[in-house]
Fold this sequence. Notes:
heterodimer; A: mainly alpha; globular; B: mainly alpha; 1 helix; 88% helix
Amino acid sequence: MSESVVRDSTPATVPAERYAAGGIDWLLVVAILAVIGTFIRAIYFTPVEATQGPAQKIFYVHAPSAFVALYLAFALVAVASALFLWLKDLKLDRVAASSAEVGVVFTTVVLTTGPIWGKEIWGTWWTWDARLTATLFLWFLFVGYLVMRGAIEDRMMRARYSAVLGLLGALLIPFIHLSVYLFRTLHPMPIVLKPSAPSLPPGMLHTLLFAFGSFALLYVALLRFRYRLAAARDELDAREGA
Amino acid sequence: MIPQNAGYFHAAYAVAAIVYGVYIVSLLRRSHTVKEKLLKSRESSVASRE
């Protein structure tokens, strides 16, 4: 174990008894309803794009899931990992691990909905261009991160190795964002996250913004739920080890 | 003429719902298991004190 001080402030803030007695997670319920609302709005109340047809509506799930995975989930892994290496607080390790797991789920949705859209619009399920390949690599890297965590028993060593891998993995985020500018690719340029104004008609833009909000809320709810689970499991391990 | 390809977005939405749904169910199951173990641990610690 490292000679530096290891902190773990969680047991004081999330008592195991309170967790064990907890009922319905209302934030998660609201987030699920918001995502269902996004689906309904996109399917029934958003105009159909003239050249791509209804298949373009995949955009309202694909793009917000990618936004959450890259710019919220994996970005938070990087921040929490860097702070863990500095402060050695296991609470930060739990934040990073929880965000990585939720990020992998969002990236799975990106990597499954993208090819369905690509098959209709590009005529192929997959192409080995920079953005798709880098995103697939990011997914493998964070699946490896989660597998590695399960393989290391020493709590402090697990946290330290995970923090290093989490930081290195997050280096792919700016590369993935800029890949459509740096390389010749089939993937379209950003139409919202760009220096100029969004290039979408209002009906589509409002649905997209609603989708960003609902998927971000789903991320926060899942992260909170997963973090509490990790804190309770750590406390259980500590009790069983005592 | 607008292409008739709604099947693709139906499939994509179904896949997304399944992935998120399966993950939420896995979280709920894991949470349920941990809660049960915590309650057992508390009961055994109370019994050992008595």
